[in-house]
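can u pls check wat happens w/ 3,4-dihydroxyphenylalanine
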Amino acid sequence: MDAQALENEALSAIEAADSPDALEDVRVQFLGRKSELKLALREVRDRETGMALNAARERLEAAVDERQATLERAGRLDAAEGLDVTLPGDRPPLGHLHPLTQIMREAEDIFLGLGYEIVDSREVETVWHNFDALNQPLTHPSRSPRDTFYVDDNTLLRTHTSTGQIRVMESRQPPIYIAVPGRTYRRDTPSPKNTPVFHQIEALAVDRHITLADLKGTFAHFCRAMFGDDREFRMRTNFFPFTEPSVEFDMTCFLCEGRGCPFCKHTGWYEMGGAGVVDPAVFENVGYDPNEWSGFAWGLGLDRIAAQRHGIPDIRMFWENDLRVLRQF
Ligand code: DAH
């Protein structure tokens, strides 16, 4: 056997192979178990011939590998040329709005449907807008730095969205129909119903002859739009310095449907927020004549609304960013 001639013949066949299949045929022909080279190797008796044939085998194997890489590269280029850019692409994974943002927008939509205006108010506030103008007595415990985050003596993180009422009333004349959604801050220990950062939606209606009945009817509409017809709510008396009379709204607990369970402390009810008829002292603080104007206001906890809507027993879950929870909404 002429080893050199065989090697030359094999090399040109490898070079001529124009597809992976053709290359495989060439490999079997020249390097397969029954190839001339392999048979010759099996019969080798002297060291020199053995070394020469093995070296030829190694060179041929390397040539096959190299040709294979070249053919694969060319194949990929062909595929790219055949790319149809009009085909739909792979959709990148899309997130969605946080459940609290969704609820806030739904609440805004309900107010917009009633003809209210949505107002964005500030989160860093003055003591005047958060307490004084709202008729909060100097002795009220919520003024303490133990309850409220102060930036300095006169500046704080708003503890409720009621500040938005004052800001709007200071800047325009009635009639006023507004809702102020947003973040609020209190030095509360996190618990299933409280977090130091939370959300409220404030409602304020100021016009002639507004009564508690308007408040109740508006709240009933809000609840039905948010929760459907099946849930019950109740209005019970309470006290806020900025309303007279003042009420608190409760909803039947979603867990036990009002029968009473550990979550609602066996009352069957879950507190949603405070409301009332605007106190004449507040109108005086913003320069309105309390004999001419009357109004109602409320402040509802949005995190609690979201908890009630989705049956979430602990509002801290909204803050944990566990995607297994958030993806459900
Ligand atoms: N600001 C009160 C709170 O955060 C809730 C509230 C009560 C808002 C009565 C009002 C209101 O507008 O009239 O607890």
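The CA atoms of residues 142 and 305 lie 23 Å apart.
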